[in-house]
Amino acid sequence: MLLIRGGTVVDRRGARREDVLLDGERIAAVGPALDTTGARVVDAGGAYVIPGGIDVHTHFALPVGAVTAADDFASGTLAAACGGTTCVIDFAGAGREPWEEALATWHERAAGRAVVDYGFHLTVTELPEGQAGANARFREFAERGVTSVKLYMAYPERLMVDDATLARALVASRATGVRVCVHAEDGLAIESLIASALAEGEIGPAAIPSVRPPSVEAAAIRRVTELANEAGAWAYIVHLSSADGLGAVLAARDEGADVHAETCPHYLFLDQGRLAEPSDEALDYVCAPPLRGEHDRGALWAALGSGALESVATDHCPFTRADRRRGTAAGTAAWRNFTEIPGGLPGVETRVSLVYQGVRDGRLSLERWVDGIAGAPARLFGLDGRKGAIQPGHDADVVVFDPQATRRLAARWLHSRSDHSPYADMELTGWPALTLSRGRIVATAGEPNDPVPGWGRFMRRSPLAVAARAQTA
Ligand SMILES: [Zn+2]
């Protein structure tokens, strides 16, 4: 038994002075005066005691053309633990391979390596033609504990689905409770903007914001939320980046769509001006959707503060500097235009603290911070009742967060295999003092604590409750 004593417990229900007693892998009791005879004591005086972070958007060991994301499940989950995240949901599938193969590959990559718990979303690039077949496919996913999928409205050559497939997925979602996540950018509009930019000789990363403008994000969100509304289905927009995109989410909600959204720390902190830096450093900031402007960051922070925007995930998908320069095309030594620069930023280790800066700046309440990084992801992705709250019976995924600890971010001491950090030299106040994964201390003061590869377990997740909605069909 382990007693976390004297801290301020924070979750969705508020902040209160309570002790937390852990028994083995579970939270046994929470309260102001627990009988704790014989328990080992951790002094959490002056600290916040919060549920372990849940990052529902990572890409560990993802191959993209000729290069592969820098973190695998070992380094990625270790970085997560050091930054206060105790559960990740990674996207299984790299392209158009059969889903059984994708799932088997991802299980193989994670098992025996992960140091915190993990789940999978399946990337869906095709579905059986008929609705019954699509529904049956989704049931097979759910039987394997994979209760969310992702469909892409962008990347025509690798991943994009047409609207008919998207519509079938949404109807299947309603029938089965498997959640649909969408990469919402209008892929065909982007292709034509890319062609124009390249024809003009704009081949460097500075062109990226103008070929993937907020309008293509908003347009895709309008399309998918309309389809979701017609299907009476739940939909989740991943990596929402812009004020226009946010506007489309809120408008769809006003029309009755059951739509949810996440943003990522890089859209809250980093400016698109980084992509115009003259040196090779601009490559370090390539991601999709691209970084945006100050107006967008302000809108996203405000929506996160109000709860209109529910969660923050990272889209963690870093590449080494060598791989960024090398590019994704086979048989070439270096990228030839911006379409060949691998896109994706590190984030899994810095998310909890970065979002906490919003509390310090007065943009977020403590409750909104914790709900955005743990509570909402748990509720939205079928982990409710097990993770995402400090409650008896929940997994003892607990972070003791020291609001006074300071860090100057640098890739040198962070635990991702990325050799650069887009947040380098940022000064943060507030960092995890202790991370517990199912009762085991896996990180202390941001450093690994005797990590056990394979300690992390696959989380079989539950489907969304759909019965009430389905009956009205
Ligand atoms: Zn992603």
What does this 3D model show about the protein?
The chain is an alpha/beta fold. It contains 14 helices and 21 strands. Strands 8-11-12-13-14-15-16-17 form an eight-stranded parallel β-sheet. Helix 12 runs antiparallel to helix 13. The longest helix is centred in the middle third of the chain and has 18 residues, at 214-231. Residues 57, 59, 315 line the site of zinc ion.
For the structure shown, list the relevant keywords.
alpha/beta, binds zinc ion, 473 residues, seven-stranded mixed beta sheet
Strands of the largest sheet, in order across it? 8-11-12-13-14-15-16-17
What is the CA–CA distance across the termini? Answer: 49 Å
Which blocks of ≥5 consecutive residues have pLDDT under 50? 467-473
Structural class: alpha/beta
Estimate what percentage of residues fall within beta strands. Answer: 15-25%
Q: Helix tally?
A: 14
| Dominant shape | globular
Ligands, ions, cofactors: zinc ion
Helix content range: 25-40%
Report the biggest beta sheet as strand number plus sense, adding barrel if it closes. Answer: 8 strands, parallel
Q: What is Rg?
A: 21 Å
β-strand number: 21
Give average pLDDT, whole number: 95
Concise structural overview:
With 473 residues, the chain is α/β, with parallel strands linked by helices. Helix content is 32%, strand content 23%.
